[in-house]
TrEMBL record:
SMART domains: PKS_ER (SM00829). The lineage of its organism: Bacteria, Pseudomonadati, Pseudomonadota, Alphaproteobacteria, Rhodobacterales. This is Alcohol dehydrogenase. Belongs to the zinc-containing alcohol dehydrogenase family. Residues 8-342 form the Enoyl reductase (ER) domain. It comes from Rhodovulum kholense. It comes from the Bacteria. Pfam families: ADH_N, ADH_zinc_N. Keywords: Metal-binding, Oxidoreductase, Zinc. Its cofactor is Zn(2+). The keyword Hydrolase does not apply. PANTHER family: ALCOHOL DEHYDROGENASE-RELATED, L-THREONINE 3-DEHYDROGENASE. One of its GO terms (molecular function) is oxidoreductase activity, acting on the CH-OH group of donors, NAD or NADP as acceptor.
């Protein structure tokens, strides 16, 4: 099969022919229809993710058609169109049995701990636990764009912060996960303020229905959120994993507010000096989140398929496999609005 392989940190991916993946006994092999390019892939590309060993095929935001089925699989057959979360849980441990598949001790991470989906084919273990059928009306590029950003945003808003209609949601970071949170938050009935430093991203947020767009370069963004919302946001989403946005998200909340750390802190940002006085005096709740359990896909897909939210504006660019390296390098600077999705694996 044809694949883009990471062979060195910050080096262009090598697009070449590699061996087809073996089908896991409890899994399937998918023909990849589309794969998103995510900031988490950039972390791998830079060498910031300790789980990654070279060489590796990146890519964890994928959908596809079942090409081969392992003997232990009961729910799927060749020809099924499916999607999977980026955390593939075993389905058998105590955490999985409790519905907490994102903390499964036996999890597999395509694009990080095994070969990913910057390729024509991908092997997906634990298929009965993790695969979900795609609605017939959903195009592959959109399904891939859901990837880890929409699913992570959905889990952050509904599974962690329990966002309610009429509340104010402040989003620090207007990239893929931030814009996903904006659109999902509006669909859930919240009012939304987006904070960023890139004018194009702020304009994009307004075009997608943000009630307020705040340029953090113009002053104290947290204070601006508190003023706009009449005392502070009820829920804040941190979507970059850096101190500036994490501190801003905390300080933007009203008393008893809830903040969700969605952005992945890496490198020097794994340790931050945070305003714990704000947590104490405001009686704030601070949550971490990572991915989404597969059992939550039906509620998200139903929201989309039912026409309650249009996520197609997420797709910024449909690109070729050979263009993946350029998209990864673009994350070194503030990336352009919208998600890049690989839809052509032969060029």
């Amino acid at each position: 099969m044809r694949a883009a392989v990471l062979t060195g940190w910050r080096k262009p991916l090598e697009v070449s022919k590699v061996d087809d993946p073996d089908c896991p006994k409890d899994g399937v092999v998918l023909k990849v229809l589309a794969c998103g390019i995510c900031r988490s892939d950039w972390h791998s590309w830079t060498g910031a993710d300790p789980d990654v060993s070279l060489p590796l095929i990146p890519g964890h935001e994928y959908c596809g058609v079942v090409e081969e089925v392992g003997p232990g699989v009961t729910r799927w057959q060749v020809g099924d169109r499916v999607i999977a979360p980026f955390i593939l849980a075993c389905g058998h441990c105590a955490d999985c049995a409790s519905g907490h598949q994102t903390i499964c001790a036996h999890q597999v991470l395509p694009g990080f701990t095994q070969a990913g989906a910057f390729a024509e084919l991908i092997a997906v273990p634990f298929a009965d636990t993790n695969l979900t059928p795609l609605p017939e009306t959903m195009e592959p590029a959109l399904a891939a764009a859901l990837g880890c950003r929409v699913t992570t945003a959905w889990q952050a808003l509904t599974g962690r912060a329990a966002l309610r209609p009429g509340e104010w949601l402040a989003i620090f970071g207007g990239g893929g996960v931030g814009i996903s949170a904006l659109m999902l938050g509006r669909a859930l009935g919240a009012r939304v303020a987006v904070v960023d430093v890139v004018p194009d991203k702020l304009n994009y947020a307004v075009a997608l229905g943000a009630d307020a767009a705040i340029d953090a370069r113009a002053g104290d963004a947290a204070e601006a959120v508190r003023e706009i919302t009449g005392g502070g946001a009820h829920v804040a989403i941190e979507a970059l994993g850096i101190p500036e946005t994490t501190i801003g998200a905390m300080k933007s909340l009203r008393k008893l507010g809830r903040m969700v750390q969605v952005g992945m802190p890496t490198g020097k940002n794994t340790t931050m000096a945070l305003p714990m006085d704000a947590v104490y005096s405001g009686q704030l709740a601070v949550y971490g989140t990572r991915g989404m359990a597969a059992w939550k896909y039906p509620s998200l897909l139903s929201l989309i398929d039912g026409g309650h939210v249009d996520l197609t504006p997420l797709i910024g660019r449909r690109v070729k496999l050979t263009e993946a390296s350029g998209e990864l390098a673009a994350f070194d600077a503030p990336a352009p609005p919208g998600v890049a999705v690989i839809t052509n694996f032969l060029a």
